[in-house]
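A further point concerns the way the authors explain their paired sequence and structure data. Each protein is reduced to its one-letter sequence and a matching series of backbone shape codes. An entry of this sort, consisting of the sequence and the corresponding backbone structure tokens, reads as follows:
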Amino acid sequence: MRIAAALFAFLLPLAAFAATPAEEKAFVDAYRKAYEGKDAKGLSALLYTKGADPKALEFYTMMMTDGMGSKISSIELKALDDDDRKRASATMPGPDGKNLKLTLAPVKKLVIRKTTKDASGSSSSTSSVFVAESGGKLVIPVPGK
């Protein structure tokens, strides 16, 4: 009985902060709208910057706004697999060589597929970024020390 009570006490906070499907959809829609609408402030508002390394924040902002205005062919939040959890908890080299870690533990990953067409043909790319929860809202955590 004690084990069940302890497990319940441990899992309750996780369940209390789990985003609803409507909150997940709102996050994905906000990302798409900001990206396709060339709204750098809107994209930056999705970042969790508390404790973030300034160089990492600069890098994340640059990467998020790269190609801004182009059409996203698909965007979705996906569950983390074991490899994702391993990568998310690992120490990583920052833009200036310092070792950094994500400032929040991710709960999902945002997978973005873009297709671009021009006179020389078309190309597609896929990128992903970890998504965490803070204060009851979904955010993209920026690595810190």
